[in-house]
Amino acid sequence: MRVFGIGNRYRHDDAAGLVVAERVGGTPFEGEPVGLIEVWSGEDAVDAVSSGAPAGTLHRLDAVAEPLPPALFAASTHHLGVADAVELARALGRLPAKVVVIGIEGACFDAGEGLSIEVETAVERAVEAVREEVGACTSAP
After folding, report:
1. What sign does the CA torsion over 130, 133, 139, 141 have?
2. Which is nearest to 14 in space by CA: 125, 133, 112, 88?
3. Kind and range of the H or E element at 83?
4. Which of 4, 50, 68, 91 has minimal CB crowding within 10 Å?
5. How is residue 104 annotated by DSSP?
6. Rounded Cα distance, 41 and 63, in Å
7. Helix, strand or coil, per DSSP, at residue 27
8. Average pLDDT score over the chain
């Protein structure tokens, strides 16, 4: 299993997925999420999301079980977000057998570097959530 962190280092909280990926030894992915279709094969993805929940809230979504809610990724700084990439992969028959998205509720997506305090705190919880997902996958028969 591979872990991809999706984001933009220069849009504050949008960098959360990149930071998580770096901390778990995953792959930071700074391109358009639709590019994941070419590289994934049963993966975890971490991205910043915006649902109106308090900043730092973690979301766990099983992208194989049901479509990702596009509104959750509406604040994305990408042309096509993670939800779009997942649904395109599903339509093309290229969605891996397991795709889990861990989303961190962001507070600021303006231009600039550095995570908000709430998101920085949530990164540690997301790192643990990703490690649990990876552990569950590697221990499954």
Report:
1. negative
2. 112
3. helix 82-91
4. 91
5. E
6. 13
7. strand
8. 87
Question: What is the distance, to the nearest Å, from the Cα of residue 123 to the centroid of all Cα atoms in its chain?
Answer: 11
Prediction pTM value: 0.84
| Tokens 């552990």 sit on residue | 135
d(CA 134, CA 132): 5
CA 3, distance to chain mean position in Å, is 9
- From the number of C-beta atoms within 10 Å of its C-beta (0-12, 13-18, 19+), residue 17 rates as buried
3-class secondary structure, 44: strand
* pLDDT digits 0-9 by tens, 51-95: 889 999 999 999 999 998 887 876 555 667 888 888 999 999 988
Q: Hey, what's the torsion of the CAs at 109, 114, 120, 124, to 10 degrees?
A: 110
Structure-token match 């570097």, residue found:
113
